[in-house]
Specification:
The chain is of the alpha+beta class and 185 residues long. The chain has 2 domains: 13-47; 53-184, no CATH class. Helices cover 31% and strands 31% of the residues. The strands form 2 sheets. Strands 3, 4, 6, 8, 9 and 10 form a 6-stranded antiparallel sheet that branches. It has a 4-stranded antiparallel sheet with strand order 1-2-7-5. A hairpin with a 4-residue loop joins strand 1 and strand 2 (65-72). The longest helix is centred in the N-terminal third of the chain and has 33 residues, at 15-47. Keywords: Membrane, Transmembrane, Transmembrane helix.
Length: 185
């Protein structure tokens, strides 16, 4: 039995082919690096405009004023997508002021100092705030509003659903119990 010799063509691997293959390999690695850098820059630009909405309830006994504000602590604008109040198994697609006037007993007799309608499409700039409502200006209205809102907060059937987005169409909602934004997929 005879063994066949394998012929190696010495002329196949010349310097042109080695340089060409090396250039293609370098180009492929460069392409991979560019794609990775683009993904990093996209993520960075999304984070640089991330809104962070929170609900702030503040009271001032000395001024006899109770305020509910929607505040953007983020670095980009928040665009409201949905505002809904949930109460006793019902869903009310309305803002806080409208809900309180329609469904909270005794609230319609109070003097509101200020209120804003919060609806889909409203943009809250970075560091901005929208006053959902302010009530008070006299002791009777201030104390009555504290009681009404305290009763609502103590009611386990009361909640809200506020959803918003960034300019990159990333969606969040404010958690009704903690008030902390949760990213939606």
């Amino acid at each position: 039995m005879s063994l066949k010799k394998i012929k190696i063509n010495k002329g196949f691997w010349n310097s042109d082919k080695i340089f060409g293959l090396t250039a293609m390999l370098i180009s492929l690695v460069t392409l991979i690096i560019f794609v990775r850098q683009t993904n990093i820059m996209d993520d960075q630009s999304r984070r640089s405009v991330m809104p962070y909405l929170m609900i702030e309830l503040s009271e001032s006994g000395s001024e006899q004023l109770l305020k509910l504000d929607l505040v953007n602590h983020g670095v980009g604008p928040a665009i409201i997508e949905k505002v809904q109040i949930n109460h006793k198994g019902e869903e009310y697609p309305m803002d806080f002021y409208t809900f309180l006037m329609a469904k909270a007993p005794g609230m319609d007799t109070l003097e509101f100092v200020n209120y804003s309608t919060i609806y889909k499409g409203v943009a809250i700039p970075a560091g901005g705030r929208i006053n959902a409502f302010s009530v008070g200006s006299n002791e009777a209205d201030y104390l009555a509003s504290l009681k009404i809102l305290g009763d609502l907060q103590a009611d386990p059937s009361f909640g809200f659903d506020i959803r918003y987005k960034s300019i990159y169409e990333d969606f969040w909602k404010i958690h009704p119990e903690t008030g902390i934004p949760i990213k939606l997929d």
